[in-house]
Amino acid sequence: MIIMNSMIYLGVLASCLTLSCGQDRAMLALKANKVPALTSRIEADVYFQTNEKRSVSPFTEGLLPGTNRFLFSFPEGQTGAVKIELRALTKNNCTVGSALYEKNISGLVTISDETTFNEYQLAEGTTSGLLSVWGISQNDVWAVGLDGKILHWDGLCWIDYSDSKLKLGGFASVHGSSSSDVWAVGSQRLIRHWNGKIWESALMQIDLSIGDAQSVLAFDPKDAWIAGYSGDSFILYRWNGTSWFEMKKPAASAIESKNYNDLQNVPPPTYNDKLFTIAGTSSQNMLLAGTSRNDAMPSPKPGLMYNLGTTQAPNFAYREKVTGSNDIYTNDTKADYQRAWTAAADDYWFGVSGDNNPMEGPAIVHWDGKNMLKQVLGSDPNVVVNAIGGIKTGSNYDMWVSSVDRVKRINRLYRNAGSPKFDIVTDGAFSGKEVTAIWGISANDVWFVGLGGLRVHWDGSKYTTYP
Question: What domains are there in the chain, each with its CATH number?
Answer without folding.
Answer: 9-119 (2.60.40.10), 122-465 (2.130.10.10)
